[in-house]
Write a structure and sequence with these properties.
single chain; 9 strands; 196 residues; five-stranded antiparallel β-sheet; 26% helix
Length: 196
């Protein structure tokens, strides 16, 4: 089932999410719904807060990046199969010199900005069967993980922009929160005026 994606301005996007237990109700169904929602919106990641749930879980499917000619063959091959559910994840280490990449977000449609992030990370997480894993990621895979991880920390990519950039996009963000934007996937707008 495709769920509505929560738009910029909703308080759930600014909450530090809570860990979940193995017994979380209907977890498999929730993961399936999130996957369908992410693919329906042509996203490469979707965090639970983006569907209104302040829990520490997100999905990633970076396979669309496998067609990017700018990347080398090894990275494209890795991204082709980088499809995971991350439950209660932790970033253990971040290293390297920060690099910029133009990021967007399903909760903030039509806004893309350069965000600086570290290129190498080591992470720990549980999969959908609550098996624990440790993984080292670099390049775009690391970036996708960091972007989604920010969501469960209550941080949006727009929070990482300079104050000048934030001022320049302020009107656009306000319009998104009011639903004054055309999107081709289901969304829930926090500040939309109710029709009479």
């Amino acid at each position: 089932m495709v769920l509505p994606i929560v738009a910029y301005g909703d308080p759930v996007l600014k909450i530090k999410a809570k860990e979940i237990a193995k017994e979380y109700p209907n977890l498999k169904a929730l993961i399936a719904n999130m996957e369908e929602t992410m693919h329906g919106a042509f996203g490469v990641g979707l965090a639970a807060p983006q569907i209104g749930l302040p829990i520490r879980m997100f999905l990633v499917d970076a396979s669309p990046f496998a067609d990017d000619d700018v990347l080398d063959d090894d990275e494209r091959a890795f991204l082709e199969n980088f499809k995971h559910t991350f439950i209660n994840p932790t970033i253990l280490e971040e290293s390297g010199d920060e690099w910029a990449f133009n990021e967007g977000c399903l909760s903030i449609p039509d806004v893309r900005e350069d965000v600086f992030r570290k290129p190498n990370i080591k992470v720990e997480y549980f999969d959908e069967d609550f098996k624990k894993h440790t993984m080292e990621l670099d390049g775009l895979a690391a970036r996708v993980f960091q972007h989604e991880y920010d969501h469960i920390e209550g941080v949006l990519f727009t929070d990482k922009l300079s104050s000048l950039k934030k001022r320049l996009i302020k009107g656009k963000l306000l319009n998104i929160s009011k639903g004054k934007i055309a999107v081709d996937y289901r969304m829930k707008f926090p500040n939309m005026k109710k029709k009479r």
